[in-house]
């Protein structure tokens, strides 16, 4: 794949690009680990709502089990030439505890509804850190959020 070389983005443009991806992309990678450190990496569909990423998966899947046990995850959007990496607090949310607005946003974007499926749960990821870069020339300014607060 050939990628046209562009100038490095400033922080404000990177933040706008991250927020656009969070709004427009449908899938991301979720990385969790068990309490004993066994890693799990899976692709999941998501919606960005109220400053958090919301996914749905079976409650028995390692991603949900790990999120419940540790309360932590790393999620990633994009590919290696335009990546967003988010370290997040993970909260497992039973289907009946998802707000109406969250549920409707999820269904509206992704066109499937797991709220009435008892074996399924939601996971809400609240970003703690956000990093974004395209090439080596953007590594210096890749930190866009720290401790849940946008830096740019």
What's the topology here?
Elements: H1 11-24, E1 27-33, E2 39-45, E3 47-49, E4 52-58, H2 62-70, E5 72-79, E6 82-93, H3 100-110, E7 120-133, E8 143-146, E9 149-150
Structure, described:
The chain has 152 residues and is an alpha+beta fold. The two termini are 31 Å apart. The chain is built from 3 helices and 9 strands. The chain is globular, with a radius of gyration of 16 Å. Strands 1, 2, 3, 4, 5, 6, 7, 8 and 9 form a 9-stranded antiparallel sheet that branches. The protein has one domain: Electron Transport, Fmn-binding Protein, Chain A (Pnp Oxidase, Chain A, Roll).
Fraction in beta strands: 35-45%
- Count up the helices: 3
Please estimate the helix content: 10-25%
CATH class: Mainly Beta
Helix and strand composition category:
alpha+beta
Whole-Å distance between the termini? Answer: 31 Å
Count the strands? Answer: 9
Provide the residue-averaged pLDDT. Answer: 94
Named at the architecture level, the CATH assignment is Roll
Structure, briefly:
With 152 residues, the protein is of the alpha+beta class. The chain has helices at residues 11-24, 62-70, 100-110, and strands at residues 27-33, 39-45, 47-49, 52-58, 72-79, 82-93, 120-133, 143-146, 149-150.
């Amino acid at each position: 794949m050939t990628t046209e070389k562009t100038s490095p983005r400033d922080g404000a443009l990177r933040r706008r690009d991250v927020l656009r991806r969070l709004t427009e992309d449908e899938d991301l990678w979720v990385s969790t680990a068990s309490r004993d450190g066994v890693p799990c990496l899976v692709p999941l569909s998501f919606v960005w709502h109220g400053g958090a990423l919301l996914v749905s998966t079976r409650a028995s899947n390692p991603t949900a089990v790990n999120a419940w046990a540790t309360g932590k995850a790393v999620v990633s959007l994009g590919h290696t030439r335009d990546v967003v990496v988010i370290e997040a607090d993970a909260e497992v949310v039973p289907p009946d505890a998802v707000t109406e607005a969250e549920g409707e946003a999820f269904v509206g974007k992704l066109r499937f509804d797991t709220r009435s499926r008892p074996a399924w749960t939601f996971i809400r990821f609240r970003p703690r850190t956000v990093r974004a870069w395209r090439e080596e020339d953007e590594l210096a300014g890749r930190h866009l959020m720290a401790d849940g607060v946008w830096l740019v």
